[in-house]
Structure formats: structure tokens, C-alpha cells
Amino acid sequence: MCRLVVYCLLLFGFCPSSSALTLQEYLSQVAKNHPEILAIDATTGQYQADIQYADGAYDAKLEHNSFSRVTGYYDGLQAAQKFSKPLEAYNAEIFSEYRISAGDFPVYEQEYATLSGGEASVGVKLSLLQGRETDKNRTAMANARLKYKMWNEEAKLAQSEFYYSAILAYLDWAEALSYYHKIEQLVTVSLNRQAGIKTRVAEGDVAEIELLEFETRLLERQSALLAAERKVQGSLQKLRYYMHSAHLPDSQAMQSINASQIAWPKAFNEAIITSGPTKHPALTAKAHEMQVLKQKMRLAEVALLPKLDIEAKVARDIGSGPTSLQDTETKIGLYFSVPFERSQAKAKKSKTQFEISALEQKTNALQRSIDAKLQERLVNLSYAKRLHKMQEQQVILSRKLFEQEQRQFEFGSSDFFMLNNREADAFQAELKALTARINVYREALAILKINAVLDHAFIQQALTARVLNTDSQPGFETVP
């Protein structure tokens, strides 16, 4: 087993197996409790708590107050309990109260006096102008829900960035490992050929300088193999970050992968065709942010209105006592105020108008940016596919030239210099075709990133859907 395979097994703790780590198996491990995903979930919980806190403004409450004179001419004492429940509509509040008193009160405190059984009352308060349509509490509740929706879209963006980087790391590893195996094959063939050349030099069939030339090329290939191994090990470190060791599959081997057989999820191709800027989470988040500003504008406009509140209350005393307290009592009260100088309210409204205008322009700029980036990547994907086809054709031609040169060499009508050149050209063509193939995946992945569809839910759906091998993918033949 080669040194690279040993390194892979030691690094990841895998048991030897002939199967390679597929993209689906890799993503299934990445999606399991990664710290970045857990951090996003925890932040979601914070916004849910903000909603609960805002709703708390309409919690019912029970109040109690009492007093008793311990010295002085009067000995009156009173106790009262009040239950109140705020309502969203009309900035209203319903309440009920029970109070009871005993003893004597001075004239200026006769409102505390009750019959022997106490006084029970019910009432309602509401706003008729300022606060009728909206108020700080209702705005806070609406904003908490809108900010939660905004965060859900931002979470999709964060998840999409995370999975984009994770999949890109997989593609980098697949390319590096496939690259390494191709160089390894070339070095193995060269080592086998070296023995034959030495024999022919010893027999006098070829000059010793050709052996020296061959060994120089062999050393270059061995150096390239070492560099390729270093690149594979670097890409493995990235995979180690995404595939945290606590969830690594014991049965998967990292020892081999063929870039031409990457199982690309069908959902990825479908998302390139169906997704677009109109569904972009960033634009949806901007739409929710606009609603927050409109809520703020409504509150600023309401603040310019006069304050007119009304309160109605019905009270009934129970028990014995003065006849003046025995009838049912109905009260209606009004509170009215007009701010003559409304500089702060006007300033808030004006500022909010500018914020709305600025957000509209930012949203337009964002949509244009997404459109431009998307079109650029679609063009790149088109050229990447065309280049891949050309490189595949180049591989076929280079192989034929090498095979013909090898036959001529065997018949003695060619030399090692030409043979090595043909072999190097064929090898470079294979490497370029490999890179071109991976670049098609990279460009497709970049489109998914721009559209921000690589969120956690989409990845889970893609893992359960069927996959496509590269050679049968529509993505390699047609441009979405």
C-alpha cells in the first residue's frame, strides 16, 4: 500500500476498503451536528425568545396595594387587588378590581370608603386616536416576528456558504487525489520501463545518454508525485474540519476516488434550472426588513396624532354602610393631550422615510449584483463544459500519438526523447481533462452558491434523491 493510503487511514481511522468516499456519504457526515450548523440553530433560538419577550407585553397581571394608619385621629385602612389584561386591539386594557376598607377616613380620602363587604368593579380602557391603530408594544411584536423571518433567510445564506465551502473542499480533494493517482501510474510505468532501458544499454542497443535522459525525466515525475501527495494531504485537512472525527464512518476508505465517477446529486442540476434571484434569501430578507421600516413609519405617523383615551368602569359595593355607597356606580373618563411642538415625531418620520428610500436602492443594487454574477457564472459554466469536451478529445488524440510513437520505438525508428515527449503530452492532456471536469462541477456549485440554495433543508433533500454519474448528467451536455 502506498504511503498516501497509509496516511489517509491513519488520519481518518478508516478500515481498508475498495470503495471511495462518495459526495453523498461525505455530505451526510458534514450535515450531522457540525458546530457551524449548531451555532446557526442556537441563534435561531435567540430570535424565538425575542418573540416570546415581545408577546409578554400583553401578559395579564395582578396588583395588590393596601395601607393602614397606625397613629393619628383617623384609623382608616384599605386593601385592593386589581387584575388587568392588555389587548392588542385599540391599545385596550380590561380590568377588574376588588377593594375593601374599614375605619374612618378624612374627607379628602372618602374615595377609599366601601361598604362592609367591599367594592367590586370591572372596566375597560382604550385609545381613540394615538395608539388606536398601532403602538410600541404591537410594533415590537410585529418586528420580532419579522426579524425572526429575516434571520431564517440569513441562516439559509450562512448554511449555503458553509455547504458550498464543504463541497468545494470535497472537489479539491477529489481532484488532488485523482491527480496523484495519475502521476503515480506514470511513475510506476516509468520505473518498469527503466529496467528495460538498463538492459538495452547493457546489451548496446541504445546509448547510455538515453538512459541518463530517461532518469532525469523520471526524477521530475517523482518530484511531481511528491508535490501531488503534499496537495492531497492539505486537502485532507480541510475534509477533517468538515467531517469531524466523532462522526466519521468507520467503513469508508479514503484511499481512492475517480473524478470521472463523482455521484453528483440530481437535485443540484434541477436547482440550477429552477432557482433564480426572485427566490433569493437575501432579497427575501430585504423584503422583511422593508416591512420592519414600514411598521416603524406607522408608529411615527401615529405619534403625530393627539392622545385621546377613554375609560369606562362599573362598580358595586356589597354589604352594609352609608346609603351613598349602596347604588351601582358607572364612570366614564377621558384623557386628552395635544403636543404643540412635535419635532421628535416629525424627525423620526423623516428619518424613516430616508431609511425606506435607502433600503429600496440597496435592494435594487443587490438584485442587479445577483443577476450579474449569475449570468457570469452561467457563461463560465458553458465554457467549462466546452473546454471539458475539447480536453477529452485531446486525451484521445494524445494517447493515439503516444501509442504510435511507442510502436515506432519498438521497431527502432524512434528514440527515448520523442517517446518521453509523447508520453508527457498524453499525461498532461489527461491532467487537463481531469481539471476541466472538476471545473464544471465548480462552476455549477458556484451558481448554486449565488442563488443561495445550498441550505440545510436542500442538502437533506438532495441526499435522499437519486444521483447522476458525470457521463450521464444533462449538466455536461446542455447549458441550463
TrEMBL record:
Protein's cellular compartments: Cell outer membrane
Annotated source species: Paraglaciecola agarilytica NO2
Full protein name: Outer membrane protein-like protein
Protein family per UniProt: Belongs to the outer membrane factor (OMF) (TC 1.B.17) family.
UniProt keywords, alphabetically: Cell outer membrane, Coiled coil, Membrane, Signal, Transmembrane, Transmembrane beta strand, Transport
Signal sequence bounds: 1-20
Pfam families, per database record: OEP
Residue runs in coiled coils: 342-376, 424-451
